[in-house]
């Protein structure tokens, strides 16, 4: 059934706009001088970035001893934050797949910003394992090329190597998808630009796009191919991240539930971040006709689903820990996580991820931007705690009580994490400043096809 | 677009589709259309198809074989190392790497072929007949390389006007 021809779905773009209005509305914010809040936000994120740069400098110059890691807890904040960021990144690609592979047209006006989020989140994520190498200048050792260092080739059986490949591929593919998605819009910006410098820059990146039939035919073929390739890739990325844990013999990690559980968690946290960003963009740029309430409503529905799957995963883990009869699993889940030293983090995780998002069942809450904003932020806090619980509780208290330790991050750990927020926020701010936030050509296509049918949004 | 073409500017995609339909009926050659978004009827009517998917499939199949050969050569033939008693030819591990590298190689080669075939690359100067075709105007160019005959030109102009062209630009014969 073609969803777009039903009379049931509310209009995707409100206000019966002409093509020129669509261009003006979306391209406008990138052409005006930014508001004061933009400079304020940019200052704050640059400061965060500088803090992060200092922490990274210390890490590289003095070594990993400046982090809070110890002999038992070898993976700390670095890997927590790595998994957290890469999870957030997954939502952008999910939107691309909705739009290109499933032809869910409602994703058109969210796609671009979600992809930008993916690109910056994956960049932040990739920083952590790179820094965790300690000697970052030897990062090329991971490349399979003939050399004289003894084992000539890398160990293909190691999920950590798969991870390197997965993240590199994912970063390259998501940057490509994002960039190619904006080429027609950059051409629009080029043709609208008044100043010579802007025309030159937009012109350079728009690759001489003219929108001829040949252009569009090949462009659509390319975007379908890239979207099609991204679909299996995005599922594999977090699966491989989960396998990093699952193939080890640490209690609490050595479970087959981990890959699907990580993947759903990734989509869940990513959608929460998309919701946060979309609410902020909608509010600050008055793009209410393009990012409609029904868009936000759809994201909330995905969040409810994600929350329930996550809740089921938590319950399943606990059940299997008891049912399997493995005393180590039982200790990790019941003594360490649910009631022991890490019980606060554990219950923050459960409440934030599995319980609070259930509020989104209520229509009233889905109608309130403030509620949605708060819940979306709570979900991302909860997802951070999930990774904290998985990582630290399993490592700090494993088989041998004599090697039990406690773990706390140092200022350098915190600095790098804050720094990635700086990268992410300044990247997003640059994006909303210079690039049309919504795919103009996609939205025009919707306006064109639905010209006669556009009805007022009843929500 | 050539100098001898007739260029018509339309206000919306429906008029453009109508014009192409009537031009086709009178068998007047349509060269190209420039639109701010992909108008699928136009793409269909002008009968252009992309062979990019065929290339992509072949690149994918090729890279599966290549990556497998590389892994087999490095891990089994060139320098076999015993990692914890696992077999040299560890097929399940190979599958993951083949999967990832196939996606990587296929997408990079597809993008390169796209650049090569379309001639689009960063820094290229655009050749647009009329500005605004990236905003809210739909452009149609009519003509053949050796130029249209006088009779056909007037017929084409008549059809274009009838279908609601805002403007018809005719360059020197």
Distinctive features:
heterodimer; A: 459 residues; mainly alpha; disordered N terminus; disordered C terminus; B: 173 residues; alpha+beta; Alpha-Beta Plaits; four-stranded antiparallel β-sheet; 4 strands; 11% strand
Helix content of chain A: 55-70%
- Strand percentage of chain A lies at under 5%
Measured distance between first and last alpha carbons of chain A: 24 Å
Q: Per CATH, which architecture of the largest domain in chain B?
A: 2-Layer Sandwich
What is the count of DSSP helices of chain B, taking H or I runs of 4+ residues?
A: 5
Poorly predicted runs of chain A:
1-10, 450-459
- Specify Rg of chain A, calculated over alpha carbons: 23 Å
Number of domains of chain B: 2
> Which pair of protein chains has the largest interface, and what are the residue counts?
A-B, 62 and 62 residues
Largest sheet of chain B: 4 strands, antiparallel
The average pLDDT of chain A is 86
- The run of helices and strands of chain B is EHEHHHEHE
Name the structural class of chain A. mainly alpha
Please report the first level of CATH classification, the CATH class of the largest domain in chain B: Alpha Beta
Assembly form of the protein:
heterodimer
C-alpha termini separation of chain B: 14 Å
Fill in the CATH topology of the largest domain in chain B. Alpha-Beta Plaits
Biggest sheet features of chain A: none
Task: Give me the secondary-structure category of chain B.
Answer: alpha+beta
Total separate domains of chain A: 1
């Amino acid at each position: 059934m073609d969803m777009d021809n039903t009379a049931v779905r509310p209009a995707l773009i409100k206000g019966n706009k002409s093509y020129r209005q669509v261009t003006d509305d979306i391209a406008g914010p990138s052409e005006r001088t930014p508001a004061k809040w933009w400079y304020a936000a940019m200052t704050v994120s640059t400061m965060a970035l500088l803090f992060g740069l200092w922490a990274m400098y210390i890490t590289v110059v003095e070594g990993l001893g400046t982090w809070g890691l110890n002999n038992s807890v070898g993976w700390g904040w670095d890997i927590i934050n790595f998994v957290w960021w890469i999870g957030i990144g997954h939502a952008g690609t999910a939107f691309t797949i909705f739009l290109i592979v499933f032809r869910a047209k409602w994703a058109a006006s969210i796609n671009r910003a979600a992809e930008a989020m993916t690109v910056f989140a994956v960049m932040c994520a990739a920083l952590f394992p790179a820094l965790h190498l300690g000697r970052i200048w030897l990062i090329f050792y991971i490349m399979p090329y003939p050399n004289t260092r003894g084992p000539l080739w890398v160990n293909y059986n190691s999920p950590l190597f798969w991870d390197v490949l997965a993240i590199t591929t994912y970063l390259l593919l998501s940057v490509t998808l994002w960039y190619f998605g904006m080429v027609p819009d950059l051409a629009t910006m080029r043709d609208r630009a008044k100043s010579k410098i802007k025309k030159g820059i937009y012109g350079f990146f728009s690759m001489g796009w003219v929108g001829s039939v040949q252009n569009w035919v090949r462009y659509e073929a390319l975007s379908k191919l890239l979207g099609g390739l991204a679909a299996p890739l995005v599922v594999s990325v977090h699966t491989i991240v989960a396998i990093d844990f699952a193939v080890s013999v640490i209690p609490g990690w050595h479970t087959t539930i981990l890959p699907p559980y990580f993947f759903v968690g990734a989509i869940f946290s990513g959608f929460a971040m998309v919701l946060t960003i979309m609410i902020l963009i909608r509010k600050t740029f008055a793009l209410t006709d393009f990012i409609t309430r029904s868009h936000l409503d759809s994201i909330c529905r995905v969040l409810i689903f994600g929350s329930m799957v996550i809740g089921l995963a938590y319950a399943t883990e606990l059940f299997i820990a008891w049912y399997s009869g493995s005393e180590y699993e039982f200790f990790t889940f019941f003594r360490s996580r649910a009631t022991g030293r890490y019980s606060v983090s554990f219950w923050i995780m459960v409440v934030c991820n599995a319980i609070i998002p259930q509020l989104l069942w209520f229509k009233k809450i889905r109608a309130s931007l403030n509620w949605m904003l708060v819940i979306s932020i709570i979900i991302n806090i909860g997802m951070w705690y999930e990774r904290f619980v998985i990582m630290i509780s399993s490592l700090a208290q494993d088989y041998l009580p004599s090697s039990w330790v406690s773990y706390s991050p140092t200022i350098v750990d915190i600095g790098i994490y804050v720094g990635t927020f700086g990268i992410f926020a300044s990247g997003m701010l640059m994006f909303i400043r210079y690039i049309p936030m919504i795919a103009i050509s996609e939205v025009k296509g919707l306006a064109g096809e639905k010209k006669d049918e556009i009805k007022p949004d009843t929500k | 677009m050539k100098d001898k073409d007739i260029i018509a500017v339309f206000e919306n995609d429906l008029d453009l589709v109508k014009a192409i339909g009537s031009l086709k009926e009178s068998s007047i050659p349509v060269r190209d259309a420039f639109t701010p978004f992909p108008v699928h009827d136009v793409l269909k009517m002008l009968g252009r198809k992309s062979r990019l998917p065929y290339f992509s499939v072949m690149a994918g199949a090729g890279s599966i074989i290549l990556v497998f050969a590389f892994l087999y050569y490095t891990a089994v033939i060139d320098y076999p190392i015993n990692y914890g008693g696992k077999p040299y030819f560890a097929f399940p591990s190979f599958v993951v790497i083949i999967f990832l590298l196939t996606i990587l190689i296929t997408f990079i080669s597809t993008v390169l072929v796209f650049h090569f075939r379309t001639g689009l690359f960063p820094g290229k100067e655009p050749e647009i007949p009329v500005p605004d075709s990236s905003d809210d105007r739909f452009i149609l160019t009519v003509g053949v390389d050796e130029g249209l005959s006088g009779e056909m030109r007037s017929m084409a102009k008549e059809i274009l006007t009838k279908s609601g062209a805002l403007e018809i630009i005719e360059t020197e014969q």
